[in-house]
Write a structure and sequence with these properties.
3 helical TM bundles of succinate and fumarate reductases; about 0% strand; single chain; binds protoporphyrin IX containing FE; mainly alpha
Length: about 130
Amino acid sequence: MGKPVKKQRPINLNLRTIRFPITAVASILHRISGVVMFIAIGILLWILGVSLASPSGFIQASCMMDHLLMKFLFWAILTACAYHTLAGIRHILMDFGYLEETLKLGNATAIITFSLTVVLSMLAGVFLW
Ligand code: HEM
């Protein structure tokens, strides 16, 4: 028979003291960026529709794109797209066995994914502004 379960077990309900491992953060951000991209499809198709509807619609869409909020939205979409693609490639490389599934490599590739996303995100900013 195993040991009886201790009734006075330590519990931690203070979420601010819990630190997620970097691989968990990478995974959560992959899901969030996937959802952001899914929502983005609707926004992008809507703007495409406006711009293709008529010559004045094209000018209207161009004016919308000049707005700071719109630029910020596009920057966020491009950043989510960059992250999701890079994290997706990391995932696929692991799934196909090209990257060893060890904690060390998982941490290292998560940091590489974040770093490359920062670079691509800055390039997206340069492209938009
Ligand atoms: C418009 C394009 C895309 C959308 C809307 C999208 C959306 C999503 C969503 C919602 C998930 C689920 C995440 C989860 O359950 O944790 C997912 C997973 C995934 N996506 Fe994408 N994705 C897109 C493009 C891509 C691209 C271009 C790649 C590859 C380079 C990719 C690779 C993956 C992989 C490998 C997973 C599985 C992750 C896992 O098993 O945890 N996706 N995607």
